[in-house]
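It is worth pausing here to work through a concrete case rather than discussing structure prediction in the abstract. The textbook approach is simple: state the sequence, then state the predicted structure, then interpret. We follow exactly that order.
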Amino acid sequence: LTGKRILLGVCGGIAAYKAPNLLRLLQKKGAVLRVILTSGAEAFITPLTFEALCGEKVFTQRDFLAPPPGLIPHTELGRFAEAILVVPATASFLASLARGDAQSLLVATILASEARVLICPAMNHHMWAHPAVQENVERIKGFGYEVLSPGEGELACGEAGPGRLPPEEVIVSYLERLVAPKDFAGKKVLVTAGPTREFIDLVRFLSNRSSGKMGVALAQAAWCRGAEVTLIHGPLSFTPPPFLKRVPVTSAEEMKEAVLTHFKDADLLLMAAAVADYRPEKALPGKLKKDQPALSLRLVRTPDILLAVKEVKRPGQLVVGFAAEEGERLSVEAERKLKEKGLDLIVANDITREDTGFEADTNEVLILSRSGRQTRIPLASKEEVAWRILDAVKECGGGR
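Step two, the predicted structure:
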């Protein structure tokens, strides 16, 4: 969203109190923001709140009815916006937009704009299910606008059901998808993420420090850019976004089977998971008792998933491997793995640094291609690095 001009429209629902936090998230993503508050929204939250956060004038119905000299707010804001985000969208707003009723500044601005529009309804679950509301939603979708269905859960009225505003992070992801280039549209992308676990006994296991953040960021970036994404992941400490198709696994063997099953139909595999290299030869039943001064554990190799993929890879399929290596050996080991595994690209990062790799929110990577090209992505958030990796994949022929 860096540099994207976003118009945030806030309607008069109780979920309006979440809009300032959403605005802050958009700012962190680099968006340039303007805000419209409806008359109903002002009953829940003041323009001053948003002006303090974004440092810009917040537009209200008063600006529409009595605009400053020389200013036509709905056309000016309509031209400003690359995307319009309405949060929360009330039943009244949906009805007004569906019939093209331009009596409010927000609806008039949408009608006067060529921007992409994302609408996030939030209301009582009976209201949401009412045929009149659903008919309005379908009509609005017919205009080419995107409507993000509300989530389920406890509502402000004390009842439970569909009607909650989705989490702010999910809304931001849908907005990113709305404005992103669809250069992976029509592509089936398979992504692996996180660690695997190889059990010693019922409670103990061998694993590693992988958080899965890099793999999930790649899956999310590919989804934003139009791909049909399947995410195969080991045990994670967080829940991936709900819009991703997920296949959870535990062991290296389970991940291998899942990858080979889904790779058959994939155009691109991003093998970002940190798969355990060894497992106990035999997992012990029950819990191992602490009654011996020493214990010997025989380890055997786990299956090499990328070598297995190499055996079944078809012309036109792209495979991207990942290598977590130590400083000076980074480039050498990455190149060896690139050739040995028959990869199209390999993404390598230095695990000796605290700000890259396992558990960190940032990463810095070196990308090597089969053609000999090298691309270095400087330190950035894993979300930004994921987008840059997809750019490299596109240059390698993986996009549209």
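Step three, interpretation. The radius of gyration is 25 Å. The mean pLDDT is 92.
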